[in-house]
Amino acid sequence: MSTLVTGIGELVTNDPALGPGPLGIVEDAAVVVDGGRVAWVGTAARAPAADARLDVAGRAVVPGFVDSHTHLVFAGDRAAEFTARAAGVPYDGGGILDTVRATRAAGDSALRARLRARLAEMRAQGTTTVEIKSGYGLTTAEEARALRLAGEVTEETTFLGAHAVPPEFAGRTHEYVDLVTGAMLTACAPHARWIDVFCEPASPHAFDGDAARAVMAAGARAGLGLRVHAGQLAPGPGALLAVELGAASADHCTYLTDADVAALAEGETVATLLPGVEFSTRHPYPDARRLLDAGVTVALATDCNPGTSYTSSMPFCVALGVRELRMTPAEAVWAATAGGARALRRDDVGRLGPGARADLTVLDAPSFVHLAYRPGVPLARALDLPE
Ligand code: NIG
Ligand code: FE
Q: Where 4-imidazolone-5-propanoate is bound, by residue (predicted)?
């Protein structure tokens, strides 16, 4: 059944062929959706007929947010760790092991319920595509379980066995990396599209450049696409490694050298910025302006996880992008939609041109600018269309 969505005061298509600027804005717009895809986009005055009609009464519509970095399979929370940071206790990655303990102890149905609750929360705030990492199991069986659960709700599943060295391998990082790149990868690869590594030599719990390279090489051999947690706590080898290996995304990028920025500008790797993390860890925010001015493709994502960024809100990240990362509202909205799609190497989401998935997010506002202009106000929701 086709549906004509009309009364769109301002439509962000992210297709420069459809309207001015990178956002491809169409005013007084309408969209025809058919079979879950965008079939037609234009001004309301020229809209064709359709089986059903939905009037959004002058509101703005943007492509559904693409949250390209989350860790949604977990149990418990770390509110006490968050509180301790307010008293000056720094984040070093060690809290990951608290969440590993809680997650291993949780049954499938409890994990599934939590995962689905967070996803519903995301959709209610306009997110329609979500990448989900494992990484709170850290045994072969637990990592495979996390990926199976993630695979029930998204195609964008990421194997993150190299998230932290689990307590049973303390002081034996090499042996743990052998497990991750051996039996664990064999069990997890069928359930994953991507592989990721927490490359952070500054953390005693994470992985150095050599370990990260070994994890990436094994993942690539298993047919997985590559992503890297890079430069979250200090400058490190992650960003250059990501570019060298053709990773889809280098994530965090809070601490980058000039050489990192130059390499990202030359390569195919998206820099995915996660400002919810700096809100929580109190590190300086990443500098999107520096990256954009150098020609780097930038994405924004939540990194939703119980340790460093327990937000499910892409609008919150857009607002931080404008206020703290030195982005314009247009750059931040592009990064949260088309940028996320680039980071996942997808061309069917993050835009609203013909052929794209019919992921329309409606704003209770006349313009996309209000996402940053009215922070904390629940303006965005994913539009439910008749089947
Ligand atoms: O992306 N940095 C590593 N992983 C997560 C944090 C995980 C945690 O602290 O539980 C991140 O920030
Ligand atoms: Fe992360």
A: 78, 136, 163, 232, 308
CATH number at residue 13: 2.30.40.10
Range of the domain at 310: 65-344
Query: What pLDDT score does 386 carry?
Result: 84
Known binding-site residue numbers for 4-imidazolone-5-propanoate: 78, 136, 163, 232, 308
Task: Evaluate whether 15 touches 63 at the Cβ level (below 8 Å).
Answer: no
Triad 82, 101, 98: Cα angle to 5°: 20
Hey, is 156 helix, strand or coil?
coil
Q: Say how many C-beta atoms besides its own lie within 10 A of residue 258's C-beta.
A: 9
Q: CB within 6 Å of ligand 1 — which residues?
A: 71, 95-96, 99, 198, 229, 232, 277, 303, 305-308
The most distant pair of C-alpha atoms in the chain lies apart, rounded to whole Å, by 68
Tally of structural domains, the chain: 2
Q: What is the ipTM of this complex?
A: 0.97
The answer to whether 336 touches 368, Cβ cutoff 8 Å, is: no
Place of tokens 């969505």: 5
By alpha-carbon position, which residue is closest to atom 8 of ligand 1? 307
**CA separation for the pair 1, 371 (Å, rounded):** 31
The parts of the chain modelled with pLDDT lower than 50 are: none
Question: Are 286 and 197 part of one and the same domain?
Answer: yes
Residue 303: both structure tokens together: 């990194």
Query: How big is the chain by its Cα radius of gyration, in Å?
Result: 20
pLDDT in tens, 138-188: 999 999 999 999 999 999 999 999 999 999 999 999 999 999 999 999 999
Identify whether residues 89 and 128 lie together within a single domain.
yes
Helix, strand or coil, per DSSP, at residue 194: strand
